[in-house]
Amino acid sequence: MKEEEPDAFIQLPPPTACALWEHPERAGGKFSEIFEEVESYEDSNHLSRALYKCRECGQQYFFEWYEWVDWDGGNDRSYSTLIPVQAQEQLEALKQTNIFSLMRYYPRLHLDGGTPIWNGKG
């Protein structure tokens, strides 16, 4: 995937065959019952990145978990994001992102403690 502008949003194909597309709340359950890890890219105290697939349909998702350390009182916020991946080229581009540039990709599913919600689902 070539990026024309550094600030441009990048739309990926939606995972319409995956049950999570219509029922994102299912991702709020036990993660290991819904997803199988395919490959891990990073696993540290404050950042994890991996490729997961839906156990039900096989849809692959680039996953990122990030903990924002505020050093004040121990109430650090954490953010989890799933981005559907259809091709190796998309996966390679996602692996090159950082926590901020990852937000350019959509649709993406946010799992931040509340009800999981799709960002970019029109």
Q: Quick gist of this model?
A:
By secondary structure, the protein is mostly beta strands. It has three helices and eight strands; from the N terminus they run βααββββαβββ.
Task: Outline the fold blueprint.
Layout: E1 10-11, H1 19-22, H2 31-34, E2 35-43, E3 47-54, E4 60-68, E5 77-85, H3 88-95, E6 105-106, E7 108-110, E8 117-119
Parallel strand pairs: 1-6
Antiparallel strand pairs: 2-3, 3-4, 4-5, 5-7, 7-8
Explain how this protein is built:
It is a single chain. By secondary structure, the protein is mainly beta. The mean pLDDT is 88. A six-stranded antiparallel β-sheet has the order 2-3-4-5-7-8. It has a two-stranded parallel ribbon with strand order 1-6. It is 13% helix and 37% strand. It starts with 9 loop residues before the first strand and ends with a strand. The protein has three helices and eight strands.
Key traits:
single chain, 122 residues, 3 helices
**Helix-strand category:** mainly beta
The low-pLDDT segments are: none
H/E element string? EHHEEEEHEEE
**Rg, Cα atoms, Å:** 14 Å
Give the DSSP E fraction (strand runs of 2 or more residues).
Answer: 35-45%
For the secondary structure, the number of strands is 8
Spatial order of strands in the largest sheet? 2-3-4-5-7-8
Helix share bin? 10-25%
